[in-house]
Design goal:
The protein is mostly helical. It has helices spanning about 20-50, 50-70, 75-100, 105-110, 125-140, 145-155, 160-170, 170-195. Helix 1 packs across helix 6. The termini are far apart.
Length: about 200
C-alpha cells in the first residue's frame, strides 16, 4: 500500500562506507514520501482510473524519486512537490502507454473498504455515494487526455495553479484557464446526468 507506510527507511540499501550518509539522506526522503504519497496516489488514480494501476504508478514515482534524490538540490518544499509531481506525471504517462484499454473503468472500481466490513453508513447512503462517484469518474473519463490531467492535478492531487504550471511547463495563467475550462466540462457533464 502506498500511504501510511512508515517502514520506508528500512528498505533502503546501506553500504558500510556510506552508512552515515545514507541514514542522513533517508530521513528527509521518508518525510517527502509521507508528505506526498497520498496526493501522488490520488493524482495517479485520476489519470489512470484504476486503483491497482495508480498504486503501481505511485510506487514507480517514489522509486524514481528515491533513485534521483541525491541529485535533487532544491531545498524549497514547493520545489520538491513540483519535482515529485513531474515524476508522477511521467510515471502515469508511461503506465498508460503500457496498459491496454480492455476493461472499463466502472468494472475496475472496487469498494473503499474492500474487506466487506461495514463503515457504519446505511445502504442508501453508500449506494448514493457510489452513484455520484461513478458519475464523476465517467464525466472525467469523457474528457480529453489534457483535460483529465488538469483535473487530476487540481482536484485529486490538490496542486495550486502555479504548481500545475510548473509540472506542465506552461504559464500560471494558462494553467488556470485550461483547468477552469476542464472543470466546467465536468460540471456540465454532471448536470446533464442529473436531468
Amino acid at each position: 500500500m502506498i500511504a501510511g507506510n512508515g517502514g520506508t527507511a528500512a528498505v533502503l540499501p546501506i553500504r558500510k562506507d556510506e552508512r552515515e550518509q545514507t541514514r542522513v539522506a533517508a530521513a528527509p526522503f521518508a518525510d517527502v514520501y509521507e508528505a506526498h504519497a497520498p496526493a501522488v496516489y490520488r493524482y495517479c488514480l485520476a489519470r489512470l482510473g484504476d486503483p491497482c494501476a495508480a498504486e503501481d504508478a505511485a510506487a514507480e514515482t517514489f522509486s524514481s524519486a528515491y533513485a534521483a534524490w541525491d541529485t535533487f538540490g532544491d531545498e524549497d518544499p514547493t520545489g520538491v512537490r513540483r519535482w515529485i509531481f513531474r515524476i508522477a506525471r511521467n510515471a502515469a504517462v508511461d503506465h498508460h502507454r503500457r496498459r491496454r484499454r480492455g476493461a472499463s473503468l466502472l468494472g475496475r472500481l472496487r469498494p473503499a473498504g474492500g474487506d466487506g466490513s461495514g463503515t457504519g453508513a446505511d445502504v442508501e447512503t453508500v449506494a448514493q455515494l457510489r452513484a455520484e462517484l461513478r458519475a464523476a469518474l465517467a464525466a472525467v473519463a469523457g474528457l480529453g487526455r489534457r483535460d483529465r490531467e488538469l483535473v487530476g492535478l487540481r482536484v485529486a492531487a490538490g496542486l495550486s495553479f502555479a504548481e500545475i504550471a510548473a509540472v506542465l511547463g506552461t504559464s500560471e495563467q494558462a494553467a488556470r484557464t485550461a483547468t477552469h475550462r476542464a472543470l466546467l466540462k465536468v460540471r456540465t457533464a454532471l448536470e446533464g446526468t442529473e436531468r
